[in-house]
Amino acid sequence: MLFNTFDYFIFLPVVFALYWFVFNKSLKWQNIVILIASYFFYGWWNWKFLGLLGLSTLLDYYYGFFVASPNKRKAKLFLWLSVLNNLGILAVFKYYNFFITEFESAISVFGIHFTPWLLKIALPVGISFYTFHGMSYVFDIYRGKLKPIQNFVEYALFVAFFPLLVAGPIERANHLLPQIQTKRFFNYQQAVEGCRLILWGLFKKIVIADSLAVEVNQMYDAPENYNGISLVIGMLAFSFQIYGDFSGYSDIAMGSAKLLGFELLSNFRFPYFSRDIAEFWRRWHISLSSWFKDYVYIPLGGSKEGKFKAFRNTIVIFLLSGFWHGASWNFIVWGGIHACGFLPLLFLDRNRKNVSDIVAQDSHLPTWKELGQMLMTFGFVTIAWVFFRAHTLTDAVQYLNQMCSSLLNDNLYENLANAKGKRIFLFIIPLLLGDWYFRRNERQLKQFRFQYLFYFVTTLVVLYYFLNAKSDSFIYFQF
Questions:
Q1: How many CB atoms lie within 10 A of CB 248?
Q2: Contact indicator for 241, 209 with CB cutoff of 8 Å
Q3: Is residue 325 annotated as a catalytic residue, yes or no?
Q4: 112-137 mean pLDDT
Q5: Rounded to 5°, angle at Cα 99 from 95 and 103
Q6: pLDDT one-digit tens code per residue, 76-87
Q7: What mean pLDDT is reported for the chain?
Q8: CB-CB contact of 297 with 399 (8 Å)
Q9: CB-count exposure of residue 120 (10 Å: 0-12, 13-18, 19+)
Q10: Among 30, 165, 356, 360, which is least packed, fewest CB within 10 Å?
Q11: Model confidence at 414: pLDDT above 70
């Protein structure tokens, strides 16, 4: 089930009504209602994969008890079993075809040829997210940060909670489980905040991202048909398409959770206002970045064992992050590009320079220095997005080659005059202005003088696009 469909806007009020008005006296039954709703939500896409979700949940639930054993040898054995099971599920359903075709290509160099057997099944939605939920739970038990959950419904709800099930954010057990285990009471202000986030998320997805997708798809499918300026505009369009799409999903997820009395982890904090790549990754897909930091980077030694190991660990997590997004070389290259942008900051000990503040913290406009830093960071990220968006590594290189050769060989005035897709700025500018206004607090949309007019107009615009335009699936559903 998609957040941007009529189905969801029938489903959510029904769950809300049952949750608050029928089963509100019992925490146990409230959790059961949400768990059933979550499995229904997931099964709406493809009920056949409910078994895989259930199996993954059941295994990590039982592994948790063994990992808590005082016998360290036994605990480590079941920790590794959990890791192998979760990564095994990913390897089979997400990476098997990639590895077998790459292996076939590699040995063909030596004159050995065979026809690989490929899996012809759809990638289960959300598999990269719920497997990471399970691993984080078992890791935290092993580290002594968490005790095994006795109640299976509570653990299953942590893994399958429908707002975050298919595209995150990747929750931590020590953050979400206490909320699941504690009696919840309806909070009017929290519910209002949830509705605002859902509305703003729908605006970013349906109005901004889906509108930009039309131009982006045309340019990436046939870059040879466009001049250099048009392809630059196409790069900009995808930068805001993926941001509107994914942050819009996260807003709807957080808003839906608020309606049920839950607070999810933040996943975006206005990343395009970052002043360097390190700050960008503290603001973009925060739950994934922090997951790799806590469960890969720090166990490998982090940055406390010298520059060499810090460089090695940084490269590892960026390449893994790229590969997490998809079984393709272009995603790995995308991760490698970001590693190259991060390493100079690490070498100069400037990777934590912009940690505690935001750009233009105490003013309405950035300084010229801040503006330059934001533009450079955004430019770097935008070029890297080409490798993320292109279907293959070859397609990404062709896109950039066509863009650069056209810019260098053609008259700049003619490039500008004949540029396609200039109307995309009509969608980018409102998103930028809205983010800039709300940049100090991404969770609670700021109270301002004309808020009711703003939400009324936004509602009308969302309804217009919802009823009159085709809305696409969320980009991160494929991961």
A1: 28
A2: yes
A3: yes
A4: 81
A5: 175
A6: 999 999 999 998
A7: 86
A8: no
A9: exposed
A10: 356
A11: no
Using an 8 Å Cβ cutoff, are 227 and 411 in contact? no
CA–CA distance, 281 with 90 (Å, rounded to integer): 24
- Helix ranges (H only) for 116-187 are 127-142, 152-160, 173-181
- pLDDT above 90 covers a percentage of the chain that reads 46
String of DSSP letters for 105-117: HHHHTTT------
H/E segment holding residue 231: helix 228-259
What is the torsional sign of CA 298, 301, 306, 307? negative
Give the tens place of pLDDT for each residue, 210-250. 889 988 999 999 998 888 888 998 999 999 999 999 999 99
Closest CA to 377 of 403, 344, 349: 344
State both tokens at 389: 């968006």
Alpha-carbon distance of 371 to 360, in angstroms, equals 10
Lowest average pLDDT, out of 96-100, 191-195, 326-330, goes to 96-100
Give the model confidence (pLDDT) of 424-437 as tens digits. Answer: 888 888 888 888 88
Side chain identity at 342, as an amino acid letter?
A: F
Helices (H) and strands (E) in the chain, counts: 20, 0
- Phi then psi dihedrals of residue 4, to 5 deg: -100, 40
Nearest Cα to Cα of residue 27 among 172, 187, 179, 253: 179
Average pLDDT score over residue span 353-360? 80
Residue 244 has a CB neighbour count (10 Å cut-off) of 26
- Residues 256-292: tens digit of each pLDDT: 999 999 999 889 989 999 999 999 999 999 999 999 9
One of 133, 175, 285, 325 is an active-site residue; which one?
325
How big is the chain by its Cα radius of gyration, in Å?
A: 23
Side chain identity, residue 351: N
pLDDT tens profile 46-83: 888 888 899 999 999 999 999 998 998 999 999 999 99
Task: Name the residue ranges covered by the structural domains of the chain.
Answer: 8-185, 190-275+354-478
Between the CA atoms of 339, 340, 341 and 342, what dihedral angle is there, to the nearest 10 degrees?
50
d(CA 258, CA 199): 13
First to last CA, the chain: 16
Q: In terms of pLDDT, which residue wins out, 38 or 427?
A: 38
Region of 130 on the Ramachandran plot (φ > 0 left; ψ -120 to 50 alpha; else beta): alpha
